[in-house]
Amino acid sequence: MQVYLPIAEVSVSAFLLLGLGGLVGVLSGMFGVGGGFLMTPLLFFIGIPPAVAVATEANQIVASSFSGVLAHFRRRTVDIKMGLVLQAGGLIGAALGVVIFNYLRSLGQVDLLVRLCYVVFLGVVGGLMFLESLRALRKARGATGPTPKRRQRGWVHALPFKMRFRTSGLYISVIPPIGIGIAVGILAAIMGVGGGFIMVPAMIYLLGMPTKVVVGTSLFQIILVTGFTTMLHATTNYTVDIVLAVLLLVGGVIGAQIGTRIGLKLKAEQLRILLALMVLVVCGRLAADLLLQPAELYSLGPAGGH
Hints:
It is built from 11 helices and 4 strands; from the N terminus they run E-E-H-H-H-H-H-H-E-E-H-H-H-H-H. By secondary structure, the chain is mainly α. It has one domain (2-139, 155-287). The strands form 2 sheets. A two-stranded antiparallel sheet has the order 1-2. The chain has a two-stranded antiparallel sheet with strand order 3-4. A hairpin with a 4-residue loop joins strand 1 (2-5) and strand 2 (10-13).
């Protein structure tokens, strides 16, 4: 069943979109990630313009993150104070990101920027995750050396403007959380991602937050930042396609329930290596699209189009 997407200006199978939403929902439930960094490239592959894919996917992340954060609130694994500081940085970053996005869109370069960002970030993150997963698998099999201790004090603890975060058991400067928030906000605006794949490692290794409160706090931060990003894209670029968003949401909600059940049956090391391999496959496909000569060198558009 074909459905016409009015903002993307393409016709796509509704079942394909529901299936993509379901697939990313399964991944979200299995791995605890928003899935935007995989969904947005998948939308490129089926012909959705990058500007529309980025803005619409930011909208979908709001709903999936809201659903996830409710469960964490019930378990009391959300550091609200830290989340608010991260959100402050995230809102600044999102505004900056949309300004950059609009400027490059006016130059006609936004599609190239988005694709390049994905190739770089997916390549780096996928490679690091794959190496870390291999180490974890070796450790699980008993081939372990001495476990490195996490450094407890460093340059983060020497910075001014300290604040106490009781839920995380931290007394640190607000500068690093705001900086992380700004970086993730820019990524949310330009790439249509929640930024959890950068936020979570930064919160653990840079800020020293306990792992049990990291995912819930990350999701709490993502909701407001991606919601703000969606609003900016909708009001300045008019690139949020509601029909596309609804179909992805329905598939995502169903898939997340299935993914949560699957995730409970697999070991953490197996989950991480599967996710790393998927990220690297998507990165490779995007890189090939950028580097290989297309079958058609020219395309015809309407008169006066860009």
